[in-house]
Structures are given as C-alpha cells and as structure tokens.
Amino acid sequence: MKNIAVIYKSKYGSTEEYARWIAEELGADALEVSAVKPEQLTGYDLVIYGGGLYAGGIDGARLVAKNPCKSLVVFTVGLADPNETDYANILAKNFSKELLQTVKIFHLRGAIDYEKLSFAHKGMMAVLKSALSKKDESQLSSEDKAILSTYGGNVNFVDRDAIAPIINYVKGIL
C-alpha cells in the first residue's frame, strides 16, 4: 500500500468514525485536521479528506482545497440521503473548478442527537424546521419529512458498510 492519510474534521463524531474505519481498512494514518500542517499533505501519496456538512460548507475542507495533495479523495458526512441530494452547490462553494475535475467525492450519511448540538446548530435546525413547517405537505421532499418527523430526537444513519465504495475506489487506483 502507498502512504495514505485519512484526515477528518468531526464536530459530533460521525465523520471521525467513518475516517477511522477507512484508515483501518487501508492501513492509513487517521489524523484530525487540526493536527495537520499544510506542508505535510505532499508527504502522502493519497489524502482522503472527510468533513461534515454544515450550512453549505464542508467542515475543515479548506486545508485540502487550498493546499496541494498528490492525489485527493473527499467524503462528506451529512443527514441527507446521498441518493436524493444534489451536492453541486456545496462542492462549488468549497472547491475550485480545477480541483473538482481531479478529486473523487463520496457522500455518506451521519447522525444527529439534538441534545448534543451546539447552540448555533440548534438554532439552524430550528430555523429549518420552521421553514419546512410552513410548506404545504405536497411540497415536502422525503428528506424534509424526515427532518420534521425526527426533529428534537436522535437519528443515526452511520453504517460501516457505506465506506465500501471508498475502499474499492482507493484500492483500484493504487
């Protein structure tokens, strides 16, 4: 195996859990983003970056978006179903057009426990709930309905099997 780093930024634990599983499967280093200096990135043959999705951003992605990597794979972690979500705007907001042409991106589902949310995140979820509550039932997507039905509770979509496409892709390019 080549020299691989799995770098992650995790606020509530889902991204870290995925990152550690990926690192374990690939025999890679698992590093929290705050422990990585930009100049370290080129010391790896492959960097796999994982960040949670928050308000249109990929948490901590600036490290890999603004600093060169020999090869880069990105995974995002959010509540939305990747099969029903368009990530184009989020990706364009976080990465240059040039980088998006070379990076492979995967989207995974995370978890939410409203009791553990920061004050700011509780506020954002309350605003989202309020906006969704004002929509007519016929205008709600399945994701919207899921947010409304689980609001205030604890939902966990984290699944170790979800990393299989990342592992298979990485093994295929090494």
What would you say this structure looks like, in words?
This protein is an alpha/beta fold and 174 residues long. It folds into two domains: 4-110 and 157-173, Flavodoxin domain (Rossmann fold); 113-155, no CATH class. It is built from seven helices and eight strands. Strands 1, 2, 3, 4, 5 and 6 form a six-stranded mixed β-sheet that branches. Strands 7-8 form a two-stranded antiparallel sheet. Strand 3 and strand 4 (57-58) form a beta hairpin. The radius of gyration is 17 Å and the shape is elongated.
The domain count comes to 2
Mean pLDDT: 93
CATH class of the largest domain: Alpha Beta
Total beta-strand segments: 8
Strand content: 15-25%
Integer-rounded radius of gyration: 17 Å
Query: Low-confidence segments, ≥5 residues, pLDDT <50?
Result: none
Q: Give the biggest sheet.
A: 6 strands, mixed
CATH architectural type of the largest domain: 3-Layer(aba) Sandwich
Q: How far is the first residue's CA from the last residue's CA?
A: 7 Å
Number of helical stretches of at least 4 residues:
7
* SSE order: EHEEEHEHHEEHHEH
Structure described in brief:
The protein is of the alpha/beta class and 174 residues long. The chain has helices at 14-26, 62-66, 88-94, 97-100, 119-133, 142-150, 164-173; strands at residues 4-9, 29-32, 46-54, 57-58, 72-78, 104-109, 111-113, 154-156. The longest helix is centred in the last third of the chain and has 15 residues, at 119-133.
